[in-house]
Amino acid sequence: MINIRLSELIVMVMLIAVCLVCAFWIWTLWRERRREIHRRRIAIQCRICNCTYAIPKKAPAVTQCPSCGTHNQRGALDPI
Fold it and tell me: Strands 52-54, 62-64: parallel, antiparallel or unpaired by DSSP?
């Protein structure tokens, strides 16, 4: 049997818990960054009414705004 003191056991459990929380936090940041990149690839912002709308990737380069009807060219949104 492994001899371990209570204080060492508590420290080990706390280190494992901190590592798990940090790993989950990094994974969540990575996942949100990938989602934001995907959203920005399919989004178009109207140059007249500032309405943001999504289009499929296979759509033509020039689309019509659903709000005001002006034609807008596909392009990535400016970073925040």
Answer: unpaired
Give the span between the Cα atoms of 41 and 25, in whole angstroms.
25
As a whole number of angstroms, the distance between CA 73 and CA 45 comes to 9
| pTM of the entire predicted model | 0.57
The tokens 């936090």 sit on which residue? 25
Token pair of 11 as six digits:
């420290």
The C-alpha torsion from 31 through 33 and 34 to 39, rounded to 10°, is 120
DSSP 61: S
Q: Along the 80 residues of the chain, how does pLDDT read in single tens digits?
A: 788 899 999 999 999 999 999 999 999 999 999 988 887 777 788 888 888 888 877 777 788 888 888 888 776 566 66
Work out whether strand 43-45 and strand 52-54 pair parallel, antiparallel, or are unpaired: antiparallel
